[in-house]
Amino acid sequence: MLGQSISKNSLLLGVFAIVTTGVIAATYLSTQQRVLDNIRAAEERALLEVIPREQHSNSMLDDSLLIDDSELLGLRGPRSAYRARNENGDVIAVILPATARDGYTGDIDLIVGIYRDGNIAGVRVLSHRETPGLGDKVDYKKSRWVDGFIGRSLTDPDTAKWAVKKDGGIFDQFTGATITPRAVTEAVHRSLRYFASHRTALLNEEDHHE
């Protein structure tokens, strides 16, 4: 009787352990998927702020390519660039990742949207550790300063003017803070240079001719 009781209890404990493990695993997988879905939604919102949904017909998150460039884009590892396409499948714009390594308190990660004609569609800073009330104005939640890049290109202004006003350029700096806007301005300019150098690959023009 004692042996049967022990066996029965062991069996019950085994079943309980299996069921508990299953519940925990199911909860983890469900939570993990929700986290991934939330990250994807946040990424998509950022992309759509640069290239609005009405301007393209594809899912940019599903039309990406890995880029690893430290010289012009300042990347510290591979990151995704995204393509926006029209109804005919032609790439109308590319959203490039970039990192300004010379921010006041460290790296400033951003994305730069560039239309196929080389004009800037928009810029968003994704992460930074700049000083609140000063350098953090590069963040769209704090100010619309980055909108000053919209419509600009490698030739508008020319290279000498692609700088903050304190350095002889056309872009505003912030009162009491020049390092942060200078770093972002230079990163955006370098992104344009990268686009110009890699235009064919970025626009997927190897098999498509204008």
From TrEMBL:
In-chain residues carrying the UniProt-annotated modification FMN phosphoryl threonine: 178
Keywords of this entry: Cell inner membrane, Cell membrane, Electron transport, Flavoprotein, FMN, Membrane, Phosphoprotein, Translocase, Transmembrane, Transmembrane helix, Transport
Entry membrane topology: Single-pass membrane protein
Keyword Cell membrane found: yes
SMART domains given in the database record: FMN_bind
Every FMN-binding domain range: 103-195
Family membership: Belongs to the RnfG family.
Subunit structure: The complex is composed of six subunits: RnfA, RnfB, RnfC, RnfD, RnfE and RnfG.
Protein name: Ion-translocating oxidoreductase complex subunit G
Organism of provenance: Spongiibacter thalassae
Lineage: Bacteria, Pseudomonadati, Pseudomonadota, Gammaproteobacteria, Cellvibrionales
Name of the gene this protein is made from: rsxG
